[in-house]
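User: Structure please.
Assistant: Input sequence and predicted structure:
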Amino acid sequence: MKTKQHPTVLLIENDTSVVDWYKDYLKNEPMKLVQVHIEAALMYLQQVIPQAVLLNLELPNRHGMNILKHIHQQQLGCAVIVITTDKAVDLIVEVRRYGTFDVIQKPFKIHQLIFTLHQALSKSSEIPSTETGQKKVKPYSQFIGTSPAMQRVYQKIAQVANSKASILITGETGTGKELCAQALHQASQRQNKPFFALNCAAIPDNLIESELFGHVKGAFTGAIQNRQGMASLANGGTLFLDEIGEMDLNLQCKLLRFVETGTFYKLGSSQLETVDIRFIWATNRQLHSEIKAGRFRQDLYYRLKVSSILLPPLRERGQDILRLAISFLKQYTQLEQKSFKGFSLEAEKILLNYDWPGNVRQLQNVIHNLVLSHYGETITADMVQCTLAEEIEPPCDIMPSQSQDSPLPTAEVAKTSPKTIHPLWQVEKNAILEAIEFCNGSVVQAAKLLGIGKTTLYRKLQQWKPIKSSL
């Protein structure tokens, strides 16, 4: 029987005494620690891809940063933990740009290092690996991105593409559910057959049945001729029903029978028709909640959800944000006959640390707006800030015009009380900085204590860094 192999952690460090310290404290952990000098690091990474890397960023001649860039550019997929004495926000933002899992600031406690390592290896293990390291799956269809979150999507597509089972795609609005459905179709044995998509939220309830099943002449007022529905048109191929949670309960009953038997009646017809269709469904609703509320049939839900694919929000996709932004920039630069060639470093930082509530669709629209509204060869930070400012109104409890370094405005609760009320953004900032200090500089641990995502925390750190702006 094969023994379970421990994940490999590469330690890039030249100081022998420091290496001995790491080895001593990590010897009982379920991981294989391999140490190399800075000069041999690149050669090692060409032969073996570890699951995690402990990188001393303060190696001579910025070699540590060069190795970080190499791992990012080669898309090796290993989780990099940067060790540094530098506490500057600028550094945190820069290393995040190259996909760093976390930054640990010296001096640190051993339990902090072990916790972060286990977190990194846990995330790394979510993607199946080969003996030498991470195995990556190429993006499907028109998908762009190689982040771990999207790797899981690609692997699930590969697992279920050739099945006849119904697939339920879930995720926030704008994450690419129809693109995922197309990818499933194109990766299946039905790829040369029809693919039809019906958005249940875009069609009035009284017309969806006709769109889905078709009708005969005279079936209702305005039915002046026979019409094929998507059920007939997609025969032999794939039918994708988007926003299935918006469908009327009465039609859900007919849909259930259609899915179970592959048969249906056109509106106004008594002739039973049979088709061979692979069903794919999508929703951004919580169908369990819809079932409890009586708005969605439980039997239909279990019929739909033979297997499911969860699309990650853009904010969880790391460097995919820049890959998508660059792709959209090329597309719209050509379409609008502009001369843009890329983004400035500061602009990239803003894109990476923005929350993207509208996900990929919002990013696409923002880039198109940038191209339309500006001229030049480089998208700058000011351009991005101005465009994002148009996306949402600033919250009423945040004052953009208030300098972070100026005296804080306070309000007396009562003339008889010494208590003062600080702006909410300042209370939040103080809480976050205190949490980071309590965790000895570990953003990952601070985020867990605060109950927020580390991406959100990094974004807030970036917001507090003064950037020259025209706003």
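The chain has a mean pLDDT of 81.
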